[in-house]
Specification:
Blueprint (H helix, E strand, L loop, with lengths): L1 E5 L2 E4 L4 H9 L4 E3 L10 E2 L2 E4 L2 H9 L4 H6 L3 E5 L16 H8 L8 E3 L1 H4 L10 E2 L7 E3 L2 H14 L5 H7 L8 H21 L8 E4 L5 E4 L4 E5 L1 H10 L11 E2 L13
Antiparallel strand pairs: 1-2, 3-5, 4-5, 6-12, 7-9, 8-13, 10-11
Helix pairs in contact: 6-8
């Protein structure tokens, strides 16, 4: 099927059976080829879309999880603080204030519970670690975006001007020997590299003029972005943390046939 928007632009639309089924399964959606007075959220291929456009977009670009179902993903326009010289609390040198700011982001939250019915769709295999049925069952898991922030926080702590402070405190990652800390930091660096490549930002950074007496161009890093509702996701992860001191039998032992790796994957 083909729709023509103008003489120079033509877009082909795949209408095979799987595509029809995908659209039909989207919650709260309605496709119409006619003009309608009902609220519309964007226009796609000449049709008016009514329904959860934020949810549709997030399901297309993100791995499904219980977080998506229970929180509901919404997007809003936010401006990044890209200032080079005007530091905020997250950029302060090592100390209690900057640590509290990063802690408030959920960088050290414990695992949450993924219900058995959500496991497969969330990318969890049936033979992965499970919670003992007498404690509610399900799968322990961490919200991946909060792990990325945990990694970024560790990179911050490992900066040359912060490292001695955290090494001397000997808390968190720094309870380990130096060679383990080094592996931990390089793991985090590479996880963030892969995340940034996977979700590569295709926005552009324009330039502004600075210094009226002798104008010169400077990159404007204060750009606008459509951002997920981070605070709602963080609050959900905080409220659904597994116990801090679980009983010894909280996790179900591996069953016969479950994969047990001989080394860290």
């Amino acid at each position: 099927m083909e729709y023509t928007f103008d003489k120079a632009s033509r877009v082909e639309v795949d209408t095979n059976e799987s595509s029809k089924r995908l659209l039909a399964e989207e919650e709260g959606t309605l496709w119409s080829g006619k003009e309608t007075s009902a609220p519309t959220f964007g226009t796609l291929f000449g049709f008016h879309w009514r329904g959860d456009l934020d949810g549709l977009c997030s399901r297309h670009v993100s791995q499904y999880s219980t977080v998506m179902k229970e929180v509901g993903i919404q997007y809003s326009l936010q401006e990044f603080n890209g200032s080079l010289l005007k530091a905020n609390v997250f950029r302060q040198d090592a100390g209690p204030d900057v640590d509290a700011a990063w802690e408030s982001l959920g960088v050290n939250y414990r695992s949450v519970r993924i219900p058995p019915e959500d496991a497969e769709q969330s990318g969890l295999a049936a033979d992965q670690v499970k919670i003992n049925a007498k404690y509610g069952g399900g799968f322990p898991a961490n919200v991946e975006g909060l792990h990325h922030l945990h990694c970024l926080n560790l990179l911050r702590q490992s900066l040359y001007y912060n490292y001695d402070y955290y090494h001397e405190k000997g808390e968190g990652a720094f309870t380990n020997d130096d060679y383990i800390v080094r592996h931990h930091v390089s793991h985090c660096l590479d996880i963030i590299r892969q995340e940034l490549m996977c979700t590569v930002d295709t926005g552009v950074l324009g330039q502004v003029w600075i210094y009226p007496e002798n104008p010169e161009p400077y990159v404007d890093f204060n750009t606008q972005h459509q951002c997920k509702n981070f605070d709602a996701i963080r609050r959900w992860a905080e409220a659904n943390q597994l116990p801090q001191d679980p009983p010894p039998d909280f996790l179900q032992p591996p069953s016969e046939g479950d994969r047990i790796y001989s080394q860290m994957p």
